[in-house]
């Protein structure tokens, strides 16, 4: 009989192997916390990367528009005084090129998005919005200086609310002729 009892105790001990409920709860809790941390870090990385790409595209688009205007204005024959006097805070500017072609730069609104436009093309796309465009003209005929300044912005995603990425551009140009 004594041998039987020992065997029963041994069999009972074998049945108790495995994890307790407390061990399972702790392991599950730690796993959930680890996954939440990893998910948050991943989302932060994705949003940061998206904002960087948006800022880069806004900057590229603004530099392209600025370079186009700078090239045409720098190589223009003269500033068209008959269209508008050479003053500060102009919203529109008109220059006459070497080929006697007239180029006008101004703000145009398409579908609620403001863009920089010339008389022949749009210099900014519908993906960015033009908030301000200003031309400051100074000097006498034959020695004109034109300062271009504008700001482009675009919405960017964040974890809490959408934010706005804004880039300002500026250049001062001396007319050659």
Largest sheet: 4 strands, antiparallel
Share of residues in strands: 25-35%
Number of E strands: 7
Poorly predicted runs:
none
Percent range of helical residues? 25-40%
Distance separating the two termini: 120 Å
What's the average pLDDT?
86
SS element count, helices: 2
Give the tally of structural domains.
Answer: 1
Category from helices, strands and their pairing: alpha+beta
Which outline best applies? rod-shaped
Notes on the structure:
By secondary structure, the protein is α+β, with helices and mostly antiparallel strands. It has one domain (19-174). It has helices at 2-15, 21-74, and strands spanning 78-79, 93-96, 102-110, 113-117, 129-138, 145-156, 163-174. The chain has a four-stranded antiparallel beta sheet. It is rod-shaped and about 100 Å long. The mean pLDDT is 86.
Question: Could you list some keywords that capture this structure?
Answer:
alpha+beta, four-stranded antiparallel β-sheet, three-stranded antiparallel β-sheet
